[in-house]
Amino acid sequence: MEWSGAVSLGAMTQRITRDEVVHVARLARLSLSDAEIDEFTGQLGDILEHAADIEALDVGDVEPTSHPLPMVNVLRPDELRPALDRDLLLSQAPAAEDGQFRVPPILGEEP
Amino acid sequence: MTMHEPSLPKEWELVVGLEVHVELATKTKLFCGCENKFSHIPNTLICPTCVGLPGSLPVMNEKAVEFAMRLGRALGCEIHPSVMARKNYFYPDMAKDFQTTQYDQPTNADGQLALADGTVVGIERAHIEEDAGKTTHVGGGGRINDATYSLVDYNRAGVPLVEIVSRPDIRTVEHAKAYVSELRDILLAIEVSDAKMEEGSMRVDANVSVRPTGSDELRTRCELKNINSVRSLGRAIEYEARRHVDLYTNGEAPRQETRHWDEEGGRSTAGRSKEDADDYRYFQEPDLVPLAPTSEQIAEIDASMPVLPAARRARLGERSSVADEVIVTVVERGQDGLALGAIEAGADADKVLTRIQNDLAVDDWSAVTSESLAMLIQMETGGELTATQAKQVLGEMAAGEHGGDPKAIAAAHGFEAMESDELETLVDQLIVDHPDEWSRFVGGDDGDRKKMQGFFTGQIMKATKGQADGRAVAQLLGQKSAG
Ligand SMILES: [Zn+2]
Q1: CA-derived radius of gyration, chain B
Q2: pTM metric for this prediction
Q3: Chain B residues lying within 8 Å of A25, measured CB to CB
Q4: What is the ipTM of this complex?
Q5: Domain spanning A9-55: CATH superfamily
């Protein structure tokens, strides 16, 4: 079957708007230029359009997949394992103080 | 103590739902083998997984899952297959930048919790999640918005939690407090958490709104955080409900937001709310496979379930006629097994329960057994001990004196049976010795009678070195004056 690569710009903008991309970028703390926002709006639209192809199929009998591996209940016993050396760990951090990670001021409310 | 503030005007009804986070008492964390305990030395209970180092992978703790299901069943929930999800937010208390939790498929759903007075509160869900680390804000008086920087300790990061979400079924402050007490009693009974609010192993957030009395609408709610005791829960809910009523009365309306309870100031304050605060972009955790508890596992949990506080109260209620508060106290202190044993050994149920409630409010009563308590109560009902003496003997039994044997303790104090005919002889003699007082007792007005009863009782106590039973004396005096 020949893939109809010519997805119209109209369809893409219906899948995701520029404002939505700006919003999602802000949630992910990504700083994007105007050109990048345009570029990703197009790319994300393509991805969503591709996923939307599934909508054309009748999947009523297919169980939703939450995980690709056919496994459940992978558990470990409640047993202690040695902790990591604190000084080694803190030496990897940009800043440390009094045995703790030192981070820049946090604005806004605590979650 | 401040004056009792009036509750809501009767045109308004309180609507409360509670979200309670409970730390599970496992040995290790939820996704790694680091120790789950409190440590004053920061960042000593950590590993690559709980500090979110690249390449580390979580593996679920089977005990945490078992404890969560145990709690679910104790709350009458259905247990469902579940998947873990990532709740994404940027805050340094979670090094991974997401919290692993359950979202649309929680382990436990649709339960209920019955309060001591019979009120039933619906449980929407009780899901498994991990705790976050602890941040300390430095500079600016320790307030987050003014701090110059913050310090992070990940000892608590990854500690297993269950979040129990109630339905908005709570209508009074008393019921909110009773819900938390009942939940704590259940947690202790099923031994999944030490449930200490003051130490943070049980944390309560309250969703508060009000509505016109008689309507069934749900109005805008505010979520109150930083509530550190049952008392503070009551104050916070009352304050918040009144704030809403005031806003509506002035033609305004509350905003849906998270508010911080300030216990010292006795008020709630708005956090800096961001419009995207609730946009956590949940998605399924790809590093963990689903949980699918088998019916055998659930049956095993049900079979090992201890008798829960509500059933324990009912058990004592059936056997006695004391006030509900007495039973609530005895069960809350975990002394109901002791009481039940003593009752079954033949002691008077009401006497057992009131004696425990009044005279066994101690931390350690392990030296008192059902048998020794039954013996004590039988000595009291049989007239071998007065009420005052029984109280004293029980105190010494709890302290483990004379091996906790009531007979030995009573004997050591010379508390001996005062036969009733012995007492009667004594009373007769006193009447002969004090004819004036006796005639005032028999023929005087109420004041005289009362005064003379005190006189004769005092004389008898003096003569018996306090061993006579005050009630028996009063009864004898009454009989003599009537006959
Ligand atoms: Zn760890």
Answers
A1: 30
A2: 0.80
A3: none
A4: 0.80
A5: Glu-tRNAGln amidotransferase C subunit, N-terminal domain (1.10.20.60)
